Amino acid sequence: SKIIRQSRPEIVHAHDPHAVSMAALALSFSAPNPRPKTIASRRVDFHLQSNTFSQWKYRQMDAFIAASGAINGTVDNNANAVFVVTGALTGVTTFTNNSTAANAVVVNAAGVLNATTVNNNAGTFINAGIVNATTMSNAGTGVVVNGGTINATTVNNSSAWHRYGLRIQRQ
Question: Strand, coil or helix: what is 9?
Fold first, then answer.
């Protein structure tokens, strides 16, 4: 807490669950203003623990970095987290976004998200790259802003969907 207050970093990157705990606790005791963005790395392919502390500490993170596509097979973006796809995410069974963050999921121009099912239930899903899915769903308070390509066999939409320039293609 003292080190973060003194050094005033723009980003705090927690590389493992212990570091996530330390960062979350330090920032909850005394965060500088403005609060630094917090990023957690995930290196294992099992779901987060369901105990209260584990859920709390990961809700304190602003973004997540997954080390491989296998890890992303367990992706559930919740709370106010932001999930950014910068490269190729493959091997994802179900990608679900329930984050209420303004830019909850961002697939950048060089990003590729390959998943069997993509569910956007809240927040904004911004695609500037390529999303390949058997089923792409947008529901609840979710908004999809597509400036890239979405290739899906089935597209379900009961919420806002915006297309800018490129295509949403049913395979």
Answer: coil
Q: What global pTM score does this model have?
A: 0.57
The token pair that represents 98 in the structure block = 């329930």
Q: Give the 3-state secondary structure percentages of the chain, helix then strand then coil, rounded to 5.
A: 20, 45, 35
- 11 CA to centre of own chain: 17
Strands across the sheet with 105-107, in order?
11-14, 37-42, 63-66, 82-85, 105-107, 124-127, 143-146, 160-163
Report pLDDT digits (tens) over 129-154.
888 889 888 887 778 888 888 888 88
109: phi > 0 → left, psi -120 to 50 → alpha, else beta; which?
alpha
| In contact, 167 and 144? CB cutoff 8 Å | no
Residue 84 vs residues 3, 66, 87, 116, 125: alpha-carbon distances, Å: 27, 10, 9, 18, 10
The amino acid occupying position 14 is A
Cα 107 from Cα 113, distance rounded (Å): 7
